[in-house]
Each structure stands twice: as structure tokens, then as C-alpha cells.
Amino acid sequence: MLSSNASCLCGAVTMLARSINPKFTVCHCESCRGWGGAPFFAVQCGTNIEIEGASKIKMYNSSSWASRGFCTECGTHLFFKFNESGDYNMPIGIFKNIEGLEMDMQYFSDQKPDYYCFSNQTKEMTKAEIMAHFAAAI
Predict the structure, then answer these.
(1) 0.85 exceeded by the pTM?
(2) DSSP the chain
């Protein structure tokens, strides 16, 4: 596991993630692509997160199982948080110095548009597989 500091663009919110899984995921779902204009490149960070500036975080319930957090000052996407477990998935780009990452999984692979592709060989889960996985967890 890795540990690293992250922050929003304006610095109003800073975070320390102590348990970063170096095998990151990419989500191609419509929500993630709509949220950031592209697939969501995320590292799984568990629940061991220290947050400074939490009063500047706005939460949005984006599904029945998760919420998304962003900075109210600059709009930076800070995390996707699972409601049940409290686990955070955080965008790779908000970490200042993180190395040793490997693309491991692509979620909603059947919703990936034709206008981009990755050469990385990864595991993949379709929408049906994701829905079955989270239905069992709820």
C-alpha cells in the first residue's frame, strides 16, 4: 500500500490517504464521464483518510450505494465514497507525488464510447456485473 497527500486546485481541502492500492481502476460509466468529462481514473484508498478543510466539501449522492465529494471553492473532484463501507476512491490527478501505479480494472467496460481506447491489458466488468456485485453488497 502507498501513502500520499492530495489537494484540490485551490488548496482549501487537503487530504492524506494512508492506504492507497497501487492497482488503480478506470470507470467508463455515464455518471463518471459526465462528472469529469472523461473516464474516472481512481485509486482505492480505504477509510484511513485525514481531511483538512472538510467544511469546504460538498457531497452529492450519485447512486444508492455511493456519494461524490467536491471542493465548494474550486470544484475539484475529491472522491467517490461508498456509503456502506465508507471506502474512498480518489482521482489519481489530485495526488502530487504518487508513483508505482498500475491500471488493473475497467468498470462499465460495455459503456466505454468508441472515441477512446487503452492499450493496457486489464480486468473488466460490465454494467450487469457491477450491478450484481453492488446488489449483493447492499
Answers:
(1) yes
(2) -EEEEEE-SSSS-EEEEEEE-SEEEEE-SHHHHHHHSS-EEEEEEET-EEEE-GGGEEEEE-SSSEEEEEETTT--EEEEEETTT--EEEEGGGBSS----EEEEEETGGG--TT-------EEE-HHHHHHHHHHH-
